[in-house]
Amino acid sequence: MSIIKDVAFIGIGQAGGNICSQFELQGHTVLYINTSQEDLDTLGDAQNKHHVAGGEGTAKNRELSKELISNNFNAIDKVIDEKIKEEFIFVVFSSAGGTGSGASPTLMEYLKNNYPKRCICGVTILPKTEESLRAQGNTYECFQELRRLYDETESMNESKCGALFIIDNNRFKDKMQLNNAFVGLLEDVLLVPDSKDIRGTIDAADVKETLRSSGCAIISKMSPESMINELNDSLNKSIFAPLESDEMVEYILLSMISAIDIDALKKKTGIPVDIYQGYNTKQTLCVLSGLSFPKTRLDGIEQQAMLLKEHRQKSLSQKAVIQEKTLDLGIEKTDKLSQSKTEMTRDEIREKAFAKFRKK
Ligand SMILES: Nc1nc2c(ncn2[C@@H]2O[C@H](COP(=O)(O)OP(=O)(O)OP(=O)(O)O)[C@@H](O)[C@H]2O)c(=O)[nH]1
Ligand SMILES: [Mg+2]
């Protein structure tokens, strides 16, 4: 059976809301959170909209987003608890704006700790290279937080976030086309267990295990007569941030229309811990999960973020303001999580998330 009913979405900020409204049309539970009432109004009849009280948007200010969320934390916590009951929760946001970028990594961490039996996944969007230095700087900071979230849980043997899909706005001119493409791909993956085929099937547990893998993930789809070259080509031209060629992959899920050369695929992707293979009559669909972060693409963003830092430093010195700056664009170093989650009460988890939102 498909796992559509097991997956809910929380869209934060405008981009998150735009993508999630497509998922709501597919029948998923969706909660929209935004500091801007105007952004929420663009979503028409969407069912569950939550305006962060006191917010008027943030104009790409991540710190303002954190402050607003922290001031409204109890209300947000309550609405999530009331509306979202599904096993998989996808938090969807752009890394380049203020609201979604500022709130989402900490919210993902909170959800992961507060709902240890659920799987918290992420969908984030990278800005085009031509976008403003501020957009690049926000993305750099957002990914510092996401990396810490994934790396810390990796090293601390505690509950982990699942798949993180990184959509890259460099890939298409039209953002809405990217949104539609992503929604179509993920829906197809959630529907894979519906394809019963005597040559082999992929069941719900296989798809869930693939999505639970902690790290980046991509989905690729090909035409019926697909060959391995086309798969390679499709991975290279996907809507996602370019793959790092370090051959790190945990799972490959491959639903095929006709048999393809798995060894050739592994040469491209690296050797996974497991491969879930099955057949269907419509299309060849491939998911790679447990991938590394796209370092090369993120390094490019970091370089632009450094220009922003230089720009800020220059204008500060021109104003003759003496101010100490840190090398990492001023984001705080988060404390290492020192306690195992099983020892923390729900109130403690909430307090900790609270404190993180408040930190500047
Ligand atoms: N792919 C895609 N990108 C989008 C979409 N909407 C905005 N973006 C990109 O997301 C970034 C801006 O993020 P928003 O989601 O608008 O910001 P926000 O979270 O609402 O934060 P504020 O700054 O408070 O408005 C820019 O890089 C835009 O190009 C969308 O629907 N799809
Ligand atoms: Mg906005």
Word description of this protein:
- The protein has 360 residues and is an alpha/beta fold.
- The protein is built from twelve helices and ten strands.
- The protein has helices spanning 13-25, 37-41, 62-71, 73-83, 99-114, 133-156, 175-191, 204-212, 228-236, 262-269, 295-318, 346-358, and strands spanning 7-12, 30-34, 48-51, 88-94, 119-126, 163-168, 215-222, 251-256, 274-279, 284-291.
- Strands 3-2-1-4-5-6-7-10-8-9 form a ten-stranded mixed beta sheet, with helices on both faces.
- Helix 5 (99-114) packs parallel to helix 6.
- The longest helix is centred in the middle third of the chain and has 24 residues, at 133-156.
- It is globular.
- The structure holds guanosine-5'-triphosphate (GTP) and magnesium ion (MG).
- Magnesium ion is lined by residues 13-14, 36, 39, 57, 97, 99.
- Low-pLDDT sequence parts: 331-341
Approximate helicity band: 40-55%
How far is the N terminus from the C terminus?
45 Å
Strand order of the largest sheet: 3-2-1-4-5-6-7-10-8-9
Q: What does the overall shape look like?
A: globular
How would a crystallographer describe the biggest sheet? Answer: 10 strands, mixed
- What percentage of the residues does DSSP assign to strands (E)? 15-25%
User: What is the number of beta strands?
Assistant: 10
Named once each, the bound ligands are: guanosine-5'-triphosphate, magnesium ion
Mean pLDDT: 88
- How would you classify the helix and strand content by structural class? alpha/beta
Radius of gyration: 20 Å
Order of helices and strands: EHEHEHHEHEHEHHEHEHEEHH
Number of helices: 12
